[in-house]
Amino acid sequence: MPRAQDPSLFPxxxxxxxxxxxxxxxxxxxxxxxxxxxxxxxxxKAGIEGTLSLESTNTGQRFIHNDARxxxxxxxxxxxxxxxxLIALEEDVIAGAGAxxxxxxxxxxxxxxxxxxxxxxxxxxxxxxxxxxxxxxxxPVKYPAYxxxxxxxxxxxxxxxxxxxxxxxxxxxxxxxxxFLKQVVKRSLPYRxxxxxxxxxxxxxxxxxxxxxxxxxxxxTRSTPGVGWYVGYVEVAGDxxxxxxxxxxxxADHLLLRKQIALxxxxxxxxxxxx
Length: 275
Prior knowledge:
Elements (H helix, E strand, L loop, with lengths): L8 H24 L4 H10 L3 E7 L5 E4 L1 H4 L3 E2 L4 H11 L9 E2 L15 E2 H6 L3 H11 L4 H7 L4 E2 L14 E3 L1 H13 L6 H11 E4 L4 E9 L5 E11 L2 E11 L6 H13 L7
Antiparallel strand pairs: 1-2, 1-11, 3-7, 4-5, 6-7, 8-9, 9-10, 10-11
């Protein structure tokens, strides 16, 4: 004869499916952001400390090395040229990719800076004085609102209007870089289509039959160790992958590792074809 069931068990039994679902989702959330062994090996082989975050704009899939560091803010350095370009275009302080920024006549160690620049060439050679000139035209009063609207990093005030992205006043994490780039790719910030089009034109770094790479380097030198950046996105068949890498730099030779590790990681995860 069947034994009578204890009525007190019914609520527990009915709650079990929800409990199992919660446990599954919790486990998935941990695994989704677990340390990526493929990317970790690239940093280990290079003998360098850093982080890299990759994210698909289509699926939201993410691959991360050093999740704790991906949330740590560092000086934005020249990666801010991505956002500064959009701001300059929106503020109409420069007309487009081919607009001229007259040379200020000063002699710089980087010889490519010692002549007139277009907006595009200034971005490509990471011309500091060019973007300082654009910042002067924009004016310091405008920047906090733009940064707040885009949730771009952290700005320490008061700040120097032509130095804040270089002197440590503006810091940003790799995680925040990816979040900002997602807004750029999806064009979700309230900017003109022409501004986005111009930025995309000047960010184009590499084109192959298989992908198009849009990127910007950065190097924060006013800290020890320095911090090298490589941020951007890559368009592949049917998807766009965002990336943000930063690493410790103890000398200029380490700068070559920025792009190398990022592209090797994209290949290692099967996002880009192997060479």
